[in-house]
Design brief:
This protein is α/β, with parallel strands linked by helices. The chain has four domains: about 10-175, Beta-Lactamase (2-Layer Sandwich); about 190-365, P-loop containing nucleotide triphosphate hydrolases (Rossmann fold, 3-Layer(aba) Sandwich); about 365-445, Helicase, Ruva Protein, domain 3; about 455-499, Orthogonal Bundle (Arc Repressor Mutant, subunit A), CATH 1.10.10. It contains 19 helices and 16 strands. It has helices at about 10-25, 30-45, 75-95, 110-115, 155-190, 200-215, 230-240, 260-265, 285, 300-315, 340-345, 350-355, 375-385, 400-405, 410-425, 440-445, 455-470, 475-480, 485-499; strands at about 45-55, 65-70, 95-100, 120-130, 130-140, 220-225, 250, 265-270, 280, 290-295, 315, 325, 330-335, 360-365, 395, 430. The structure holds adenosine-5'-triphosphate and magnesium ion (MG). Adenosine-5'-triphosphate (ATP) binds next to α7 and α15.
Length: about 500
């Protein structure tokens, strides 16, 4: 306890203890507890509380008790008129208030709680932050008269200043944590499964596979034509899984020159090459604890394929110019729109790397094979784009729907998304018409048409392939539609595949 006359060394020790305690807490409420305990301890006070501005500020009771020691609920209520008048004085003057003998004090002696609770000594200091009063610390003693003296004031002020700063930074940190939680929840919403629209059998199968691999670290290879939603799936795998709190880092492997890509992926040491003016960590290190998404992984050069294989085998990355590796904990998801097995066959992609990347392999079917998903997606995009001044656009004419179904969608979902966005702008009424979609005429669009000069075999093949596509690859349904046997269809398919 600090007793008058204040012993400088003692005061410093007490202050540094408080600073250390404040340093170890992060929650605003914990800051108040530390401050109160330290003040009670150092001054030998019996009871105390911290008042802070109410969140809303202003109002009838702009301050409220946020932490207290040794008051019963009843006493706290009883002491309110007293503390209110003491605190008002403190807040009015911005100066601490000391009461040596409350009963004899003309300002407070008449207040009921002073009499009933036998309060003898009171000390109250303002909590100030950047010149603004944000609250006060109130301490009292029942047993001792003259408990607090003017010698205590510098100490009390120092504690109050530290407390205000600690409280401020704890509040800011709490606000940032909250903001972070909110952003993450939003990212999860925006990049979750719920954003992937589709009920076709192929998409249902895909969702099922995704669910199963979500909480594993297995590498996932996503194959599919351009615009089929590969990146959407990669993000959902990250944001729906246990790594969602970690980073999602995407790298497009297609366009960068080799040296740049290598340093992007793995980082480099200062001086490793011209232009490497400082140490730099690569994307693998940046994604530690999260997911690395390698987009167009088939475009990696042989050199980088080898480097990537080494990372996958060892779990370590080595910065360009470094002699030793660093452990990283990442999940690798990759995407390609050319089947990697074809690239392996062509000799441009390492087979051993393919096997490292495709522990789980999923395929996004082209949009034209997703049946009613086309209409589902079109409606989804219509809802998204028909807002503000376009909010009155709310449906498609039957002709527009059939044009959507007929089109072959070489650009897949991305093309559909663009078409609907444009159509919503062009629509004149509440309904999107076929013309608003600006799709090419079916005859020009459909490369595969029965044309004069075709052989019967070619016509047969055309019929099978188109029906198969309309049936989303289902051989039995195709056979039924064409009025032939399943075996006949299978036989033909095999024949064409081998041709
Ligand atoms: N099933 C879906 N539901 C809703 N939106 C989708 C779906 N699939 C794709 N999209 C949207 O279509 C667009 C293209 O998707 P994405 O970028 O994931 O395709 P991609 O396969 O990565 O294409 P690319 O091969 O050209 O990179 C995005 O705007 C995406 O949000
Ligand atoms: Mg993509």
């Amino acid at each position: 306890m600090i007793g008058p006359p204040a012993d400088a060394q003692h005061v410093l020790a007490a202050l540094s203890e408080i600073a250390a305690a404040l340093n170890s807490v992060r929650e605003p409420a914990a800051v108040l507890d530390v401050v109160l305990d330290a003040a009670l301890d150092a001054l030998g006070a019996e009871r105390g509380f911290v008042l802070l501005e109410t969140e809303e500020g202003g109002g009838a009771a702009p301050f409220e008790v946020r932490a207290q020691r040794n008051f019963s609920g009843e006493e706290l209520d009883g002491v309110r008129p007293l503390s209110t008048s003491v605190v008002q004085e403190v807040l009015r003057t911005g100066e601490p208030v000391l009461v040596f003998e409350a009963g004899a004090d003309e300002r407070y002696g008449g207040i009921e709680s002073v009499v009933l609770q036998h309060i003898q000594s009171i000390a109250c200091v303002p909590l100030r932050l950047r010149g603004k009063q944000i609250g006060a610390v109130y301490l009292d003693a029942v047993k001792t008269r003259g408990r607090f003296t003017r010698d205590h004031l510098p100490f009390l002020r120092a504690v109050a200043d530290q407390a205000a700063i600690a409280l401020d930074s704890a509040r800011r940190e709490a606000a940032l944590r909250e903001e972070n939680r909110r952003l993450l929840a939003e990212a999860r919403n925006r990049h979750g499964f719920s954003e992937i629209v589709g009920t076709s059998p192929a998409m249902e199968a895909l969702f099922e596979t995704m669910q199963r691999v979500l909480d594993t670290d297995a590498t996932v290879l996503i194959e599919g034509e351009t615009g089929t939603g590969k990146e959407l799936v990669a993000r959902a795998l990250h944001y729906e899984g246990p790594r969602a709190d970690g980073p999602f880092v995407a790298l497009f492997c297609g366009s960068l020159p080799d040296e740049l890509l290598e340093s992007e992926l793995f980082g480099h040491r200062k001086g490793a090459f011209t232009g490497a003016v400082a140490d730099k960590r690569g994307l693998f290190e940046a994604a530690d604890g999260g997911t690395v998404f390698l987009d167009e992984v088939g475009d990696l050069s042989p050199k980088l394929q080898t480097a990537l294989l080494r990372v996958l085998q060892t779990g370590e990355v080595r910065r360009v110019g470094d002699t030793s590796g660093r452990r990283v904990d990442v999940r690798v998801v990759s995407a390609t729109n050319r089947p990697l097995s074809d690239l392996v066959e062509d000799g441009t992609f390492r087979e051993d790397l393919l096997y490292r990347l495709n522990t789980i392999q999923v395929e996004l079917p082209p949009l034209r094979q997703r049946g009613d998903d086309i209409v589902l997606l079109a409606t989804h995009f219509l809802d998204r784009f028909a807002t503000g001044p376009r909010a009155h656009v709310n449906t498609f004419t039957p002709e527009a729907l059939s044009a959507l179904r007929r089109h072959r969608w070489p650009g897949n979902v991305r093309e559909l998304e663009g078409a609907i966005e444009r159509a919503v702008v062009l629509a004149r009424g509440a309904r999107v018409e076929a013309a608003d979609l600006r799709l090419p005429e079916p005859a020009a669009d459909d490369a595969l048409q029965i044309a004069p000069g075709m052989t019967m075999k070619e016509v047969e093949r055309l019929a099978v392939e188109q029906t198969l596509e309309a049936c989303e690859g289902n051989v039995s349904a195709t056979a039924r539609t064409l009025g032939v046997s399943r075996r006949w269809v299978q036989y033909r398919l095999k024949e064409w595949a081998e041709a």
